[in-house]
Amino acid sequence: MRRILSVFSLLSLPMLAEASYWNHNGSVMWLSADGNSREFYYDQPSKTMRGAGVVSGTLLFNGYRQGNRYYGTARRFSKYCAYPIEYEVSGRVVTETKVVLTGRYPSYAAGCRPTGQWKDDRLVFTYLHQ
Q: Which of 21, 23, 101, 104 has the fewest CB neighbours in a 10 Å radius?
């Protein structure tokens, strides 16, 4: 269950030299910021995320920043689904080195069947370096 990036998606990735790097649950992420637009990509996925099919360059969050708040779409990677589960999140810039987003995502069972249950999610990004 590998996620393969298309040539188009590779061309649309931010330049790594201009990226800032962040920790998220043991994965190293890079943040692309263009005006108010914000995107978090996996740079070095954790072992757990690699097991779910996440590779370097996989998009986790895309949205925008308005003042001290982020709004957008996050993705949840499941061993039960061949594609990421998208759900809405929002949150705030706690400090310039910490961003916290929250949302609710649908739960899935084997065969990528929805269970009808929803779970709360909290995504914490902590700044590492430029």
A: 104
